[in-house]
Give the backbone structure.
Amino acid sequence: MKNNHEIDFKILGEELQCVEIELDPSETVIAEAGNFMMMDDGIQMDTIFGDGSKQQSSFMDKLFSAGKRLLVGESLFMTAFTNIGNFKKRISFASPYPGKIIPMDLSKLNGKLICQKDAFLCAAKGVSIGIEFQKKLGTGLFGGEGFIMEKLEGDGMAFVHSGGMVIERKLSPGELIKVDTGCIVAFTYDITYDIQFVGGIKNTFFGGEGLFFATIKGPGTVWVQSLPISRLAGRMMAYANNGKEEGSVLGGIGRIFDGDNR
């Protein structure tokens, strides 16, 4: 028997997706603030301390869980949406930026999933949302986005979001791949994860790909995104600062004729 609420869902859209969840009477879904899109009348919204999982039986458990969430830049509180009516109700949560929503059935993933701290979208009530510290020193010092990750535990459905397209890789025992730290969306709990120095003077100073990448070693499954939000934001900032020179052979001369003499 499952401990988490069992929810039905469907994912809508192609690039800017949303997930529509169908709640039976008394069923609840939890989400981070800012992910809500729309809901039927008869669904009650409550702000809860911690994640509302049944594993948290005491106030101190909830306080500890909420305090850990502060370390990954999240709020102390989450929002719970409960169907208080007598019939099925629907609620939708939207992607924060272009990409794909990935449904994760934790009961088929040995009850645990590690994901980037900004990847979690929503989950059935009962799923525990905590943090996962990478224990190795190199990972901690140089992991970037991958240093502190979120840990989803339970046997219900959870939904995570990726930027751009997503690739699911199933790794056999001992199989290893190297990934940009920001491109990791999630991986199963049996994956071995570490940070490796790129190496080489030319790579270090002229490679343009950063000094470190993540090593992901099987057995297990890893989900990799093509466009992490940090990379998207960096490109947008670069374009905003140099947009008038983009694609122009005139460069600064063009800016003078455009009336921009900065």
